[in-house]
Amino acid sequence: MLNKKNIFDLHYREYDDWYVKNHYVYSSELLALKRVIPDSKNGIEIGIGTGRFARMLEVPFGIDISLPMLKIAKKRGCCVTLADAAKLPFKSNQFDFALLMVTLCFVKNPKSVIKEAKRILGKNGKLIIGIIDKNSKLGKLYRRKDSIFYKVARFFSPKEVVQILKKNGFYNIEIFQTLFKEPDKIKKIDKIKKGFGEGGFVVIAGIK
Question: Using H for helix, E for strand and C for coil, what is the string for 29-71?
Fold first, then answer.
């Protein structure tokens, strides 16, 4: 899997530029994530991409399968490793929290990825998952659009993610949502609300 060119290897510049062009969407997602990010600096982003979220959220470590993206993340000050999310090269109980920022929809086996994330978390470690809600207006829009990236994605509903977390023993589930309009109509930082069902971007966090 790591030896094959993936869509993020081929289009990493388009991916990174999207956050510049959609600044308020990016800022809104960051604020939603900040609601659940712990104070601890011993965290990792699984699927770090170009490091835009890890850098702003002060997540020091990250893995990804895309070497071109990791090179950018490294320039942004992140400590990165080329690795598969389903086979993390870390000891068990090593991190205080792990972030999966719109990563779950791109992996082959989401359940295995969550199990592996749980393995590397220490006692009371927190798993934080950011998703595009497949049942939201945004989720339906992305599925219709001929997006370079989302055409290969498999979106989830918050209920599906919560179910997987609970089956893996996570508890104290927290959920926040934002992005209540289409990206090109968001002209300021959007509000953050608890729960799901309205916003296109949903953050779900649970404790190991």
Answer: HHHHHHCCCCCCCCEEEECCCCCHHHHHHCCCEEEECCHHHHH
- Quick check: pTM over 0.85? yes
Let me know if 194 is exposed, middle or buried by CB neighbors in 10 A (0-12, 13-18, 19+): exposed
Which of the four pLDDT bands, split at 50, 70 and 90, describes residue 1? very low
Alpha helices (H) in 35-169, listed in sequence order: 52-57, 67-75, 110-120, 137-144, 158-167
Compute, in degrees rounded to 10, the torsion defined by CA atoms 50, 60, 33, 36.
160
Identify the residue whose tokens are 């993936």. 6
What tens digit of pLDDT does each residue of 40-92 get? 889 999 999 999 999 999 999 999 999 999 999 999 999 999 999 999 999 99
Please, what are the domains in the chain? 7-207 (3.40.50.150)
The answer for residues whose C-beta is within 8 angstroms of residue 137's C-beta and 6 or more apart is: 182, 200
Residue matched to tokens 């400590």:
79
